[in-house]
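Why this split exists: single-chain examples teach little about how molecules sit against one another. For that reason, every record in the complexes split bundles all components of an assembly together and asks for one structure covering all of them. Below is a record exactly as it appears in the raw files.
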Amino acid sequence: MTDHTYDGPADPLRRRLLKAGAVAASLSALPGAMVIAQAQASFDWKRFKGQKIEILLVKSPRGDLLTKYHKEFEDLTGIEVGSEMVPEQQQRQKAVIEFNSGNPSFDVIALSYHVQKRQFAKNNWLTDLRPYINDKAMAAPDLDFGDFAKGGLNYAVEADGRVMSLPLNLDPWVVYWNKELFAAKGVAYPKSFAEMVDAAMKLNDPAKGISGFVGRGLKNANVPVWTSFLLGYGGAFTDAKGKLLTDSPEAIEAARMYQTLLAKAGPQGVAGFNWNEAQSLFLQGKAAMWLDGIGFAQPLEDPTKSRIVGKVGYGVMPPGPKAQVSALFGDGEGISTYSKKKGPAWFYLQWASNKANQTRMLQAAAGAPVRNSAYAAAQASSDFKAPKEWVECMLKSAAIAQPGLPVIAPVTEFRDVFGVALTNMINGADPAAELKRATAEFQPVLDKSEKA
Amino acid sequence: MTSATGAPARPGFLARRHRSYYFFALPALVVVGAVIIFPWLFTVWMSAFDWKIGSVAHFVGLDNYVGLATNQRFIESIVHTFYFTALAVVVPLVLGLIAALIFHRRFPFRGLLRGIFTMPMMATPVAVALVWTMMFHPQQGVLNYLLSLVGLPPSLWVYSPTWVIPSLVLVEIWHWTPLVMLIVLGGLAALPTEPYESARLDGASEWQLFRYITLPLVAPFLVVAAVIRTIDALKAFDTIYVISQGGPGTASETINLYLYLQAFAFYNVGNASAVVVVFFAIILALALLLLYVRERAKWT
């Protein structure tokens, strides 16, 4: 069977998207495709029977889960799946090198939006999925964009309306808080940034080895902690012309908050903490608040690892002076632009993001699914162990989520340069001076990458 | 032309023989050319380009080198590399020598204890680094607990910009002192006994025996250990990357870590190539110095 190519006249969906020319329009248009898809009497999953596709996944619980159920996809479609799972860092290197070669070994690739979205889009490494979404014969009935969280679709859709991937997993940042420590000092969960700082200072008790706040201080890893505050202060990463706004008054205020929380209410040595050090401190009941991605409920509620089972509060990021925002990270899957088997690859994408797989992801605590229906489905199951408060926190956070890092190609350099500045602040450097230096250092890198 | 013995001469025989030898050396030359010389020349060539993977390369001549010479972070990484290397060579040498002198003497369970002492060497560096990371944790690590047992205040270990490099060296010491011990122990076993007997007859003290006989005789072995340790310490990457990732901030960023960032995190291939060339020059200079010291330390 030949593969689909879509260079013909613009279809109705594409026309609508082109007309609107904006993400918002494309998001509202996508559910329309669902109506078309659902109108089909029966969907032919077997149309690419006998073909073989290659998948490049990231070694993670999500990668493991998909791999475990590949046989189900093969039975459903008759398409053979060859898959490779590579650790995150190496997968990113492999992607760059293989795409540059012009002949990558994979048809489908898993991507981390916060690192790879702009890089892939800028180089046109992924296939626009709109023609497939709009094709009655190609979009499965299960593909319901109304069921996908807005934050995930924001990541999947480019500013010009192209849909380059299907999102699978969301990682909004939340505040884990120790209810016992809060109650002991009569402190309530903060309702603003000011209250958050107050609570951290009140709960900080170095004599008892208790920190009021813990989070990432290690360079590179620490940047989302600062951006979580930056977004609440109403700050942004760049203006419309690509000029960095990372030394704006909002950015400096956010950095001061970061400095106060980590240096004054944080544990000794926090400048070298990544999430694992922060987690181990919080697990031991030695920290009152911990700001990080939402994926840590499982260890926190595991009695063999945690001393605070049942005492953990899952808090939505408190509102900042200008906005209430949860910094968002996420991942999805796209089809290589060089793939010669885009049809079968598209079938794989639909299967990977279907309701059953999304529900499994939640049940296995392998991530936070992008499809809202997965939460209700998982909670209905008797073996679902995540606390109800966690699910509510996830849904509320996803609704107020914005990308936690700028969508730019040199995002790793951004994290490195600003990460060093933030670590220096924990060790006493002036936030305004550090941000000014980092912004001056990074602006040429950004300019160069956009010109390239 | 005839030879003195009257046998007929075979003009060009030697030359022909050499030619056939060249033929046999060819495969090795091809391999060396392909895996060492070509990549090296290509690296030098790339270092003259401003090239980020995914973009077009521009020839910039020596700009990358000029950039490095004025790059504070790169210069600091050289300082960190030398600081780390100096500590990671000298301390294991001293401790390894002491350990070798102890294990050279006869005492009960010597073999067993020597075996136990060499065990760290067999551990995988990344696994070792992960275990030490947990031990270094300022609140929950066992090291601060041990300090508290003897009444010492807690340390921040690798979480302090000041102490991160000495703490990383601690891991190197634990891991590689046994290697130095084994090399020196081999040297001690090979020493002649006569100089000791005559020195004892002359009334030399234990310290004098060590200072004027053992140390000079074992010096060549110490130099070998120093060369191996220097190479190991200069190329150290896994331990530092796993434990501190070059942090806090850039406090433990060595040339290798800086290079890794440039090449594999930022994909700045041109700049990374220039870093490699500078690093190679530094290693070459150190190797020449060590060769000179080795010549000086030979038994005469």
